Structures are given as structure tokens and as C-alpha cells.
Structure prediction request, 163 residues.
Amino acid sequence: EMRHLPNALDDVDHLGTDWLVETVLDYEEAGHRWRAARLIDGGRDEWLFVGLDRGPAFNLRWVKLDPAIELTGYPPDILERVVDGERVHYRLVRRGSATATARGDTSQTLAGSLLPQSSARCRWWLFEAPGPRCLIVEEWGGAYRVLAGEKIDPAGVEFLPGS
Prediction:
């Protein structure tokens, strides 16, 4: 069962930092739904994916845009990324195509291609490396974005509904 999902202008507390939810993307693919929230704290800009993994568990992935991996076409089955000086190999575990609807401030999202309350199709790929590390790749109208981060423990996250 899904607990409270972040909404635009909610706050998310993660490891003692309060993040403002500025943008929410709701995804739907063949009856499976998940949500991504763009989180702002000062100059930091990160993303929280809720429920991307199918199944009953409440699963979270905390990621941020990774400009080091540039894709101009369909991603390969293995992506390599340097993390703290170590070469990490990420293996493709799932991919699909979803419809996403945006809410909140979308001006900094997806090169502005998705307006508030509008929907668009996106292709997505999920890559995992040993441990909690993951990459989420999305393709929106020919433009790719790569988000790098990790699976996190829901116990370390609190959703605080906005006013």
C-alpha cells in the first residue's frame, strides 16, 4: 500500500534536510503508476522516485541529473560511470514507455518540454549496479536525461504535506 506521495509544494525530510517539492511527474504504464518529485534545497536540485519498481513494497530512489553521461540515442545494456574515483558498471534491468503528467513548476524540467497539467510520452530505462546504486534514463521527444543515485530506505524519509 502506498503511503502519502509527495505533491507539489509539499516538503520532504530526508536525513535531516527539508526539501521543497517543486515539480511532480505522475507516470502511468499499463496500469502501473509511480511518481517523481523534483526537490529543491538552496541551490541543490534532486529527484525522488516513488513506486517505480512494481510490487507491493514502498520503494524509493533518490537521484539527481548526471551530466557526465551523455546519450544521444538508445542506451546500451551497460552504462559505466565513475563514482568517487571508482568505475561502476550499471546493468539494464528494466525498460518501458509511460505517459507522464506534470504538476508544479516545470520550467526547469525536461528542457521545458512538459507544461503544467499536460501529458507526454516518455521512454525509460532502469539500470542497477551492485548495492543500492541506480541510474534512471528517460527520453522525452528525442532528448535524453540521465539521473544517478540510489535506492533508499523509506524509514529515512518523511513526507510533510504543504500548507
About this structure: The radius of gyration is 15 Å.
